[in-house]
Write a structure and sequence with these properties.
Elements: H1 3-11, H2 18-30, H3 35-47, H4 53-63, H5 67-74, H6 98-106, H7 120-128, H8 137-143, H9 147-154, H10 168-172, H11 185-194, H12 197-210, H13 215-230
Helix pairs in contact: 2-3, 3-4, 6-13, 7-11, 11-12, 12-13
């Protein structure tokens, strides 16, 4: 990928498509400490509704200097979509069976988590529950020197700022008890993706009280999760 193309993707991340994802994936393999490539790839996987997105988002967070900027990026309006989604992959640690797969499909487990700009808490929970630790930047400087990194360093796009908002350790302290106003359908899905089924059930119960008109839908979700727990 040449410099001009990289600038184009940085300037227009909503236009990253499947072909760009292949190139970005190669860059992350060749230059594993090049943070921009991981972040752009996560956005590209979201754009194309790839089932790889949820896992890649965790890795992008590891490489992000400022996770607030990552959050802003993935909550921007997406333009690119694909007609055929990639095949489903195993997302949570449950016994693999046709019955389990059917339930997981109904619960949309494995499909991209779509955070909106008001769901900072859901996003921070996604990071907190994975016990993420940021990449050691000193090690990065020692191990990775390449032309693209030099370009990024000389033309900074995102300023590194200390931000306590997306601190997994701080968020984990309140992760067991959610305030009703912070509970969203995305948060319930975050718990599902992580395999925290009891927390997902509790979230859907709170959503039923919060949105009575959708209580039957949430009741069905709870039933499916209960069935999943029995398998």
């Amino acid at each position: 990928m040449n410099k001009e193309k990289l600038i184009s993707l940085i300037s227009n991340p909503n236009l990253i498509d499947k072909e760009d994802n292949l190139v970005l994936n190669d860059i992350t393999q060749q230059y594993p400490y090049f943070s921009i490539s991981h972040i752009l790839l996560s956005k590209g996987l979201l754009n194309t509704e790839s089932v790889r997105y949820n896992r890649k988002l965790k890795k992008a967070a590891l490489h992000s200097i400022d996770r607030t900027q990552l959050f802003k990026l993935i909550t921007q309006n997406t333009v690119v979509k694909v007609e055929n989604k990639e095949s489903q992959i195993d997302i949570i640690n449950l016994e693999d069976s046709p019955v389990n797969q059917e339930i997981e499909d109904k619960l949309n487990i494995g499909t991209p988590l779509e955070f909106n700009e008001n769901e900072e808490h859901s996003f921070s929970q996604w990071l907190a529950l994975t016990k993420l630790k940021k990449i050691d930047r000193d090690e990065e400087k020692k191990e990775e020197i390449d032309l693209i990194d030099n370009f990024i360093e000389s033309n900074p796009i995102i300023k590194a700022e200390k931000n306590k908002f997306f601190s997994p350790n701080e968020t984990a302290k309140t992760s067991l008890i959610e305030k009703d106003e912070l509970v969203t359908e995305t948060l319930a899905r975050v718990y599902l993706e992580q395999g925290h089924l009891d927390k997902a059930i509790e979230a859907y119960k709170k959503l039923s009280l919060k949105y009575p008109k959708k209580s039957s839908l949430f009741a069905e979700q709870i039933k499916l999760i209960e069935d999943l727990k029995k398998k």
